[in-house]
Amino acid sequence: MDSLSCGNLSILQKRNGYRYSLDAYLLAAFVEEREGAEILDIGSGSGVISLLLAGMKGLQVTGVEIQEDMAEMSSRSVALARLQDKVRMVCVDIRTYTGQRYDAIVTNPPYRPVQTGRINQDNSRAVSRHEILIDLETLMKRSYELLKPSGRFYIVYPAWRLPDLVFSMRTNNIEPKRMMLVYSRMNSDAEICLVSGVKDGGRELAVERPFFVYSPEGSYTREMEEVFRSLNPPKSH
Question: What b/e readout covers 10-19, taking b as 16+ CB neighbours within 10 angstroms?
Fold first, then answer.
């Protein structure tokens, strides 16, 4: 069990296998939805993004995870956090999922085409990194189908695949509306991008200022510290 870097949440993770990274905090902070909005977390993995969105932003989240052991473990994390009224974990293939329509979709999907890079021998890591069970085009098609009219789509993705992402979003009528490039340090190339789009939205993209994770001294930047601060429990009404 690991404590998250904000609030008082903890999450179960495997000692060996896929483990969440800073991407989860960045994506959760990037999501802008009203409290109580219904969210679908595609490829929810350990459930970290679902827990952050529910526990820190007051959203109603359905996490869809194809790996049975990951789905079971994330369900236990939800119970330990006492968030069963806000988070529902479902073990199902998103390609055949027939749930309701959602206000927004969030996803930190596998990003490497099967023909690129060495596929990890650990199955959970392989499925989380390579497009073994779902590719970008299928992800976008299913997201369009599962979003309500004008619903929003949020994704964290490697910067080197940004052209593929924008092309696939537009091809499937999810128009990119916000984008932020994330850099480890000021002298490094962009590593990941955060992009949000709107189902059947008009063409207008806002490119936000660059985001740097680490200062020259190696500590978190003020921007990264603000991400952690922004992920605080919603105020009681």
Answer: ebbbeeebbb
Show me where the domains of the chain are located. 23-230
Q: Could you tell me which residues are beta bridge partners of residue 161?
A: none
Does the CA dihedral 84-32-127-66 come out positive or negative? positive
Q: Are 170 and 176 in contact (CB under 8 A)?
A: yes
23-230 homologous superfamily: Vaccinia Virus protein VP39 (3.40.50.150)
Contacts of 218 (CB under 8 A, 6+ apart): none
pTM of the predicted model as reported, rounded to 2 decimal places = 0.87
Structure tokens at 159: 């910067």
74-108 pLDDT, tens digit each: 899 899 889 999 999 999 999 999 889 999 999 99
Residues near 233 by beta carbon (within 8 Å), at least 6 away in sequence = 7, 55, 56, 58
